[in-house]
Predict the 3D structure of the following.
Amino acid sequence: QEDIFKKLVAHCKEYGYVFPSSDIYDGLGAVYDYGQNGVELKNNIKKYWWESMVRLHENIVGIDSAIFMHPTIWKASGHVDAFNDPLIDNKDSKKRYRADVLIEDHIAKYDEKIEKDVEKARKRFGDKFDETLFRQTNPQILAHLEKREALRESMAKALNANDLTALRQIIIDNNIVCPISGTANWTEVRQFNLMFSTEMGSTAEGTSKIYLRPETAQGIFVNFLNVQKTGRMKIPFGIAQIGKAFRNEIVARQFIFRMREFEQMEMQFFVRPGTELEWFKKWRETRMKWHQLLGFGAQNYRFHDHEKLAHYANAATDIEYKFPFGFKEVEGIHSRTDFDLSQHQKYSGKKLQYFDTELNESYVPYVIETSIGVDRMFLQIISAAYCEEDLSKDGKQDSRVVLKLPAALAPVKMAVMPLVKKDGLPEKAQEIMDLLKYDFNCQYDEKDSIGKRYRRQDAIGTPFCITVDHQTLQDNAVTIRHRDTMEQERIPIAQLYDILKEKTDL
Ligand code: ATP
């Protein structure tokens, strides 16, 4: 799996999906650029989210707020005082780690051990293997589970109490060592604030410290009244936003899973107090369905309901996906009570209330938040789509790498290929391009053999390739080749628009 992940990262670079930022200067930690195909996929993901959130819900509207915001906002939201991660250094390797992530990785090792035991038993028992029973009764597995749960519990306790000494003690007691130096020679654990700051204003006296937003949500909260009043919104209603966020993450790893500059798609849903848990449940289900509709297999998603809740939340869950490096969060759904609006009310001195005409009373609305990272969703999709296929036949070795992206999200919808570069075929192919390019992202490709061209399109995930041959000049029909099945059929050019429309519409 680790191996597949390395190949995936290389594939993303080779096929114009993701490049390290400042590549010719050897990169910049946890910052990435999207290439010619990456930007298309990213835009399609954003469109998929925006259409399902904003266009299909009559009571949800979008905004685009600024990255720079008044510094007091981050005081009110709690980010200045509490948006911290527990940091620990290994004195030998001089490497920094997030103490909680070190422990989480250690917890994940128990899962790996369990899966290995199951795999071994499956091989040993063959058809007769009852996996459920084995998991429930095998003493070794039960011991691993017990240790894992105990560790989880003590970490949650230490984090909840903000007890940095206890967190360090867990690392020591469990013999967790630095993956680089292999030693347990650690410093104390200390808090590290994740916000980037800069200065606004040009004169020394006139400057003030401001932050690059670490989440887009606060731009929605501070615009709550602006939108509610100007849009005449009635509760329940939502405000959605897509935009950049910045976090000075301590550990940069796993490619675009954890970045220092990334993009979020967030929606805050404002509800009547007392109805929030009902709405939380509804959004929890709705969001899971949205993910599963992409067709990557329901078994690869799961909920992780939080036992440990932030002080302002009364329910929280993550939607996790099975990445090549294990189940990890893709999206968070939180019931945030009236915490944010009340805090902004207090710090700004402005009333942030809603007059409910049905109840004939004013209140600070409660909020359900759905929050997902565009880049993380990108990684989820591309790791789910990446396939290495063995096509060897009759003793002849052959293989291909194909991105089985949902057609609606694929960067290029159709590649148009003249069979040869002469006899009027390129001109005919160009005619087809002109017919379709206003509605679909199509790519013209005339270089190399048809076989090579197909493989190139497979590697970027193009769902359809059409070939223009000499016959086309007579009958106005082309060969269409389907990416996943590699089947080919002959169809009239006049049908191409309808096929693309049907298969690639979001
Ligand atoms: P984690 O526990 O992994 O640090 P979080 O719980 O702090 O994440 P949230 O603040 O809930 O994350 O952010 C909402 C979503 O934004 C996440 O589900 C994730 O998809 C995305 N996200 C958060 N931090 C990053 C990051 N550094 N890089 C890429 N995406 C991120």
Q: What stands out?
A: The first helix runs from residue 2 to 14. DSSP finds 17 helices and 23 strands in the chain. The chain has two domains: 1-69+206-404, 412-504.
